[in-house]
Amino acid sequence: RIKDSAQLHRSIEELKALGVRVNYYRCDLNDHAAFSAAMSDIKTELGQLDGVVHFAGLERSKLVADKTVEEFLLIFKTKADSAINMLKSGVVKEKGFWVMISSIAGKFGNLGQSDYAAASDYISKLSVALTNKGIRSFAADMTGYANIGMGVRPGVEAFLKSQELDFLYPEEGMNALADELVYGKTPEIILSGSLGKLDWDKQLRFDPDFPASGSQEFHFIERAGKSVKGLELEASKEFSHEKDPYLADHSINGTPYVPGVMGIETFAEAAASVSGEKPKVLKDVRFSVPLKLLRGKPLNAVVRAAAARGGYDLRIESDFVNAKGVKLGSTRTHFSGRFEPGEQAGAWKDLEKPALPKHAKYKISSEEIYKIYFHGPSFRVLDGILSMEKEAVLGVFKKPSAALWRVKTPGLIFHPMVLEALFQTCGWRDIHFSRRIMLPDAVGRALVYDNGPDPDRLYTYGVYKGETEDGKTRYDAYAFDGEMRPVAELRDYVMIPTQI
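RE: above sequence
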């Protein structure tokens, strides 16, 4: 105790020497009156806190058979109850953060630490619960540390070394925690090197490509404010040149517009996040109000998914905020759509298939197409048009040579660039026959046959279904390979005209 107290004093003085304000409060976490008084003092002197790092813990290794109920509960309550009591105290702001320092014992177990393991896993799951409520929280299941903490106590250190556990250094752990607080997205992480013999069933796997190869995060679902599996999702997404460099290739008169197909991809990712099922079909997609980056400035959007009528209603919204941070007007719904889980058959199998030309000579080349279309290199998805009739148009999709992202393209799940080729194929028929550029207005049904990466080349086929009373054109469209295997299709794709 004397050694720990001296080290604590040195740490406080070192922090003060760096210009940091340090307030130290002492209490027994299991003494309700003392704990409440400490919380009251903190709120009085500091106000509500921006966040808390909960590092409490008590460990006394004994087999369960050798422990009294009172000993078990003392260990459990010191870690678990103190976290709950701090949460109930209101000491942290409503939008504040919580970092729960858990232990690998909670994830993997440890001989003689059933109480400590139970408490550790308890606060980890508390972090998951807070995250699901939209509160910024994560738990770090920590390994043993070199030179400090419980891991270097006599007996404990010898045992861990006999199990060939890799100790971390304090600087490594603290830097990792800081990085996770700023950049992390998951509610529970394991902060550890090799566990040696403790990981007897090989649950912990070293992945040299982490986080790229193991990430399950979606690009367009940046941060979930609310996330309740099966019920609702509210997530934020910032569209900017830095995060979405392809926007430079989808600009009209210098103003970047978020492509409708990226809105569809956003809906697919939102549906996967809330339902746990990667969608193959999205319905009733509406492109009501364009998403655009005024003066090239980032646009903050909110992505919503809400359970309704056996599926999920999907929306992308934003607020207009002026330079002073004041919201003007009501919230705008830019795109909307719907996802209904379960397999749904496509129309391709019953379609009279188009005849493919023996010699792939283009009637309209990509150079001609992109003299009219405004798209830059990463959105030039048509290699050419093979045939053009009033009832149908046949084109060729080619994966663009220019990348959508500068570093690494995220794992997209709804073939947005193939859908873009279908949009452009149908649009070119209108340009050819009516001399009008058409913009996406709605999609009755968008379907993909897999959630994998785009093929390099495909055929695109647009079937004209007539014009509405207000001058909109309607199509069904299909993307398929040379073996007549379908990749994606659109039903009742509607475009709204603009004069050229």
